[in-house]
């Protein structure tokens, strides 16, 4: 009996170790490629004989990395904040409030998730053009927030449903308004759900390429990912500079996940217990 936990952990390690190596290999290759010389990309050893940071300097200056990095930070932050506002308010309403056609409206919002974003590019492009928002970051933010809010609302509704109704009833008896109950009683208890939405939304917005490259035509307004794509040439590619830019672009994603990892895991466990 005392040996079974040890055998179970050893078997789990044996099974998961190859998957961990497989998942980490692309990032390790990207990092090593950014630190090697151009003429040793495909004909040199996996571990470079000498390391150089020239690719990072080239990526920093050749594509105006700070400007587009700030564009990505600005667009992603506003998108995450907007999605959180809509998702938490609507998720609470669909989970805890009773109003006419609640389930019908909820189903209609969920149907928007069935359409792939690529099928909506042309209609959205024409709509932004008619509104005068084409080639503006405001128009891009409208598409990001409106396109991501239904899924985030679906997640937050599930988290709000895990909370007992007795908390809301007790707060109402004490004279709290509906918004006060939401802000002071319910919202602090859904931090794992908020962390889950933040991580998912940050990743999808930070790495989004197609819509941003379609809506924005002014180079100075572009976020980081479409600009990094310009480092790929038609006949040749500066792989050290490209991988250096990609490595730098990964840093904010790692920071956000590390900061919210504990609450994110708690949210996943809460969802598993709920199911």
UniProtKB/TrEMBL annotation:
Its main location: membrane. Belongs to the binding-protein-dependent transport system permease family. The chain crosses the membrane at residues 12-32, 73-94, 106-126, 138-160, 181-203, 239-258. Gene3D superfamilies: MetI-like. This is Carbohydrate ABC transporter permease. Residues 69-260 form the ABC transmembrane type-1 domain. The lineage of its organism: Bacteria, Bacillati, Actinomycetota, Actinomycetes, Propionibacteriales. GO terms for biological process: transmembrane transport. It is a multi-pass membrane protein. GO terms for cellular component: plasma membrane. It is found in: Cell membrane. Keywords: Cell membrane, Membrane, Transmembrane, Transmembrane helix, Transport. The keyword Nucleotidyltransferase does not apply. It comes from the Bacteria.
